[in-house]
């Protein structure tokens, strides 16, 4: 099939351009104590101010670390930076460690899960109140689920090479990235089969939730063929978002639907209100408080300034990169993601950007892709599993093998550009999982639980401790350690400057933030 596909051939004469691909990682991980219970301590001062530190912040909870890399032209430098940051954090945590599993550690009662705190600046309070709203809407436990976000951008010159339509470079970028997202949506079930690593969960996580998960042991629930319970509907019970379907056929329609979601009241949220006992508890009573509340496997992104709305930035300057959000933490990697996975992601995303990408019918919603994804997260390793491809049944095994074959030329092109064979090797490693589902992370985890007779919690704690010890055994060079210490101190100064420079009250700041959302362009 690869020899008859003309799309990858257009890249051949432009190999130097491929070296302009940029990738970055945001890796989440809960802080836990030596027993694997959620840390209820404040964000360690040794890690800096989470509002302003460029590499170490928090996500939903005060205990949910998020380690961020810069953008890199090579996988080697990307993983190296992520590993250095993990080493620094591991050495600073002392009696705590990072939980290197997507499904949460042992959680305290909802009331005792601490929401992230970012100081008293208006910017910090906006982040904090937004998280208060998430707690009101979805509960705190769900927000403690962790993952890896993979940011990816193509060099501007590549859009002309691909013949992407658009009167301006901004238009080309936006059309090109939306085409990538449509193909990603069609094929992202494959990522869950290959990299899903949460087939089981501690029984404590589902307390009070309706579920149909059988017991693997007294402390562990699972699904026998699941790949990623993290990406299933377990815990994600929210009627307001259930009918919200954004359209990736064109940027204008996408922005119009996002605008409607962040400006349309939802009765249940109106009943909660924005204040309780004189304190802010959510930023608005609309379907979404802000754009980031929309749960999606991939997002079109654009960097924003202070008080700038993401949707307005996209409308004014177009899509800048994509953020893949469906990757589970790799529990076998100290950094939560391996170089092999990164190289496969680059191959997969280049494939998605280059291959023909039909518009979605049905008002921009692809039901088959949605159903395929949900089926694979729950039953991806089931023998003979059938998916739907363009309204026709196709086995996961056959479709996976076909996609691997179609991606092979892209892996070779990347290897030619970088002068190695790493991408082809990464693709071959994934092909082994297609041939034998026992090689997938989800199957290996379940097999380990059975072989060792231990619970999911015990296994995750063992692996997290081993990763901590391995990271601490390789201390940073003195110069690198000094640079991290400098950034930590500078983050406190930057946060203080933000707090000192605020001249308006928080309610006025929130009003200005909402007003910064401009009406969407006409489709």
Automatic annotation (TrEMBL):
Signal peptide: none annotated. It comes from the Bacteria. It is an enzyme of class 6 (ligase). Residues 15-373 form the Glutamate--cysteine ligase domain. Pathway: Sulfur metabolism; glutathione biosynthesis; glutathione from L-cysteine and L-glutamate: step 1/2. One of its GO terms (biological process) is glutathione biosynthetic process. GO terms for molecular function: ATP binding; glutamate-cysteine ligase activity; metal ion binding. It catalyses: L-cysteine + L-glutamate + ATP = gamma-L-glutamyl-L-cysteine + ADP + phosphate + H(+). GO terms for cellular component: cytosol. Its EC number is 6.3.2.2. Keywords: ATP-binding, Glutathione biosynthesis, Ligase, Nucleotide-binding. Belongs to the glutamate--cysteine ligase type 1 family. Type 1 subfamily. This is Glutamate--cysteine ligase. It comes from Pollutimonas thiosulfatoxidans.
